[in-house]
Design brief:
The complex is a heterotrimer of chains A (about 270), B (about 250) and C (about 260).
Chain A (H helix, E strand, L loop, with lengths): L1 H9 L4 H8 L1 H21 L9 H13 L2 H33 L1 H16 L6 H8 L3 H25 L3 H9 L4 H38 L4 H11 L3 H30 L1 H6 L1
Helix pairs in contact in A: 4-12, 5-6, 5-8, 5-10, 5-11, 6-8, 7-8, 8-10, 9-10, 10-11, 10-12, 11-12
Chain B lengths: L1 E2 L2 E2 L5 H15 L8 H11 L3 H34 L1 H16 L6 H8 L3 H25 L3 H9 L4 H39 L3 H11 L3 H30 L7
Antiparallel strand pairs in B: 1-2
Chain C lengths: L1 E3 L9 E11 L5 E11 L3 E5 L6 H9 L6 E6 L2 E2 L7 E4 L11 H5 L1 H5 L4 H14 L15 H14 L4 E5 L7 H18 L2 E6 L2 H7 L2 E5 L6 E7 L7 H4 L3 H15 L4
Parallel strand pairs in C: 4-9, 4-10, 7-8, 8-9
Antiparallel strand pairs in C: 1-11, 2-3, 2-5, 5-6, 10-11
Classes of the chains: A mainly alpha (about 270), B mainly alpha (about 250), C alpha/beta (about 260).
Chain lengths: ~270, ~250, ~260
């Protein structure tokens, strides 16, 4: 009945709106165009001397792409991020699955991660600097600290919530404990574990940016703080625009990898 | 976890970690890990000081205002997206983008636009909290059973009656969970904002303690903030479960 | 055994008249094609047809919840343009407000009409007792069984004192034993309330057991394929009906008629 209710609602909308709803790509482009135009307009007013126009920002972005400074900055920024995320995925999924399968491990470990997920871990960054200095290691640790709790807890919950009937099905066919874990529990937990990885990656980006802003300005963080200090706002905004765009593409790419490599049923549905 | 038939509460394991911490602290392995007992003594010492209370007041104020703005703006946007296909198609890509984007990168923008003061911290809180409120409100409005809407219409409810007696209540569990998740993000926002601004509230204390290598003070401050974040989360989750009792009958 | 009536041969006046109703959904699905029907006052008429036919659509058009593509519906001589107080709907999934207790749910139709609290609680109380839920006034829906929830839905529809009760597969979400009890209660209700009932079901046995008239709809786009008046004595013991030859023969005749629509 849901489809009926929806269609009867849509007949009451004006026809222009209906046309737009039926052409999502046009709508999306229009919505992006409106936001860019609003940015341009706000920059021209200007709402603040520290608010460059959209065109200025894009020009600065293009300059930084052309002279290679942006690529160099990303190489520096992405290094701790990729190392930290890889470590968090391996350790986080491992710990989460272990805790999901073993009550004692859960009892011992889960409270730490529950607190870590609710708490603002960013406040630990100064301590990390004391412990690990201002180099790559400190940034990797920051990324791990931000990304791991959500990966661990999602893996733990995913394993815990394996449908009982699936496990009983496996046992009724005399599956061994190992078979149960590798053929039923892990595949059934995969979607939630992957959701945790995406959330972890998003937190990892927050971590690496904070590390670059708070520990020592390097990479993208350096472009942001340096241009902020000399009031070269178009470049500062362009760097922020670039890191947000990259983080979104990165998370989209993770989703794509998940779909193409690990989720046959979703591929079949699409 | 049960030992000999006795159920050991989940968070009891924290006692073991606390003991390990105390041993590590006393061994003097690293100056960044002072003994836990010293940290707790420091909490008792610094919490009543005027500096701490002033920082707490600013943090609480910016946190509360930021959350209020996020809730008051976020819920109507979420309702609009849940009710109108057009609004949803226009706004959803942006909301989805902001919900997973590294918002900490935008804090420098807020700083150059609004200066190094309370406004910046309030806006950081809003920026962190609002998206999940919008998204959950939208989900709540969308999951209102169609038959409840038809029921209201067939018994002659006016638009206002349908909204105030049905829609809001039917979407309430999701809205509340959005507010809870928004507040968790807001705690992170208020801390990140203060860390970056670093001359206001706890941010100033962080700066002060870390520049003077006052590790016990620093940890004491962290413990207070972590305890607040955790208590807030648990309290809101408890409240949510109390309200959610009726959602059990949802299909 | 089984009497067959033509469309307009009923002695009782029509409480609901459906004339030339067609419905084509956005996207081109044709649910109903030129339906013409009269629903006699004080009787229970069932809409029965293969699954996916437009029986619920027709019921919701009569309720005013969906507008027909063409044609019209009149209730007590007045054209239907939307929901109205002379009709009350009973929903397949009960449509109870989970945040309101039984008392408020039952009185909700009156609450929307602005009836004072004391008065609507008095009326609600009466119908809660009538459907056998006395003592559950303060209970919330999640604490009730499926059968009890539908009793609340029924009491809510009765409380607004509508002349026409529209029931959309009201017993399909309750278990079989509760369902039989419901059917017996419904027969008593029809006899005692002097209201017009329009009932949608996909169960042939249920239709034959409770109906004064059964309208058979064809596969989509639905047309009226046949109207059957089961020749069953409603005066006797409800327990006896399911064993009577007339009941069994009618069930069989309808099954033979519907079979061809099932792949």
């Amino acid at each position: 009945m849901a489809t009926i209710a929806e269609s009867s609602v849509s007949t009451r909308q004006p026809s222009a709106a209906q046309w737009l709803v039926k052409h999502p790509l046009v709508l999306r482009l229009a919505s992006v165009a409106v936001v860019c135009a609003a940015w341009e307009y706000a920059g021209r007013v200007p709402i603040s001397p520290a608010f460059p126009t959209f065109v200025e920002t894009m020009a600065a972005l293009w300059d930084m792409i052309r002279d290679g400074s942006l690529a160099k900055a990303f190489a520096i920024t992405l290094e701790p991020l990729v190392i930290g995320l890889a470590a968090s995925v391996v350790a986080g999924v491992g710990l989460g699955v272990l805790m999901g399968l073993n009550r004692f491990a859960e009892w011992l470990g889960a409270p730490l991660f529950i607190i870590a997920q609710a708490a603002p871990m960013a406040a630990l960054i100064p301590i990390i600097t004391f412990a690990y200095g201002i180099g790559l290691l400190a940034k990797v640790v920051t990324v791990c600290m931000m990304a791991m709790p959500v990966i661990v807890l999602n893996s733990l919950n995913a394993i815990r919530h394996t449908p009982t009937s699936l496990v009983e099905m496996g046992r009724s066919f005399q599956a061994s404990r190992l078979d149960l874990i590798t053929r039923i529990i892990l595949p059934s937990a995969a979607p939630v574990i992957f959701a945790g990885l995406r959330l972890g990656a998003a937190s990892g980006f927050i971590g690496v940016i904070l590390a670059e802003l708070l520990i020592t300005p390097t990479g993208i963080g350096d472009i942001i703080t340096y241009n902020q200090s000399i009031a070269e706002y178009p470049k500062m905004y362009a760097a922020i625009f670039a890191i947000i765009a990259v983080s979104i593409l990165f998370i989209e790419a993770l989703e794509w990898i998940e779909l193409t490599l690990f989720r046959p049923e979703k591929r079949a549905a699409a | 976890m049960t030992i000999g038939g006795f159920r050991v509460p989940l968070f009891a394991s924290l006692v073991i970690w606390a003991i390990l911490w105390e041993i590590a602290g006393r061994s003097g392995a690293s100056f960044v890990i002072p003994p836990l007992s010293g940290i707790f003594a420091r909490i008792v010492e610094i919490v009543p000081t005027p500096t701490f209370l002033a920082a707490l007041a600013i943090t609480a104020k910016t946190f509360a205002i930021g959350n209020a703005i996020a809730i008051l703006v976020g819920i109507p946007i979420g309702v609009a997206m849940g009710r109108s296909e057009l609004a949803d198609r226009i706004l959803l890509p942006w909301v989805n983008m902001f919900i997973s984007a590294p918002l900490s990168a935008l804090v420098p923008v807020i700083m150059v636009l609004f200066g190094l003061g309370e406004t910046t911290i309030i806006l950081t809180v809003v920026l962190f909290a609002i998206w999940i409120i919008v998204l959950d409100t939208r989900a709540g409005v969308r999951s209102i059973p169609p038959s409840l809407v038809e029921m209201a219409r067939s018994f002659g409810a006016s638009r206002l009656q349908a909204f105030s007696k049905i829609y809001i209540w039917a979407a309430l569990p999701e809205i509340l969970s959005g507010i809870r998740l928004g507040m968790i993000r807001a705690v992170k926002g208020v801390v990140i904002g203060q860390l970056l601004v670093s001359i206001v509230g706890f941010g100033r204390l962080f700066e002060l303690y870390s520049s003077r290598f006052l590790m016990e003070h620093f940890w004491a401050l962290l413990f207070v903030i972590f305890a607040f974040a955790f208590t807030l989360n648990e309290a809101l989750a408890w409240l949510e479960r109390r309200v959610e009792y009726y959602a059990a009958s949802r299909t | 055994m089984t009497a067959r009536a033509s469309h307009h041969a009923d002695a009782a006046a029509a409480a609901v008249e459906v004339r030339g109703v067609s419905k084509i959904y956005d996207g081109g699905v044709e649910a109903l094609n030129d339906i013409g029907l009269d629903f006699p006052e004080g009787q229970l008429t069932t809409l029965l047809g293969p699954s996916g036919c437009g029986k619920t659509t027709l019921l919701k058009i009569i309720a005013g919840l969906i507008a027909p593509t063409s044609g019209s519906v009149k209730v007590a001589g007045r054209k239907v343009t939307g929901p109205g107080p002379e009709r009350a709907f009973v929903f397949q999934d009960f449509a109870l407000m989970p945040w309101a207790n039984v008392m408020r749910n039952v009185g909700f139709g009156l609450e929307l009409r602005g009836v004072a609290k004391a008065e609507r609680e008095r009326v609600a109380q009466k119908y809660i007792a009538e459907v056998g839920l006395k003592g559950f006034e303060e209970a919330y829906p999640h604490a009730l069984s499926g059968g009890m929830r539908q009793r609340v839905g029924l009491a809510r529809a009765l409380a607004v004192n509508a002349k026409v009760l529209l029931m959309d597969e009201p017993f399909s979400a309750v278990d079989e034993q509760t369902r039989r009890k419901f059917q017996e209660d419904l027969l008593r209700l029809v006899a005692q309330e002097r209201k017009t009932f329009i009932f949608v079901t996909h169960s042939i046995e249920e239709a034959v057991y409770v109906s004064d008239r059964i309208v058979l709809l064809s596969k989509r786009p639905s047309r009226v394929s046949e109207i059957i008046v089961p020749a069953i004595d409603r005066g006797g013991d409800p327990e006896q009906i399911r064993r009577s030859q007339a009941y069994l023969d009618t069930v069989e005749a309808i099954w033979q008629g519907l079979k061809r629509y099932i792949e």
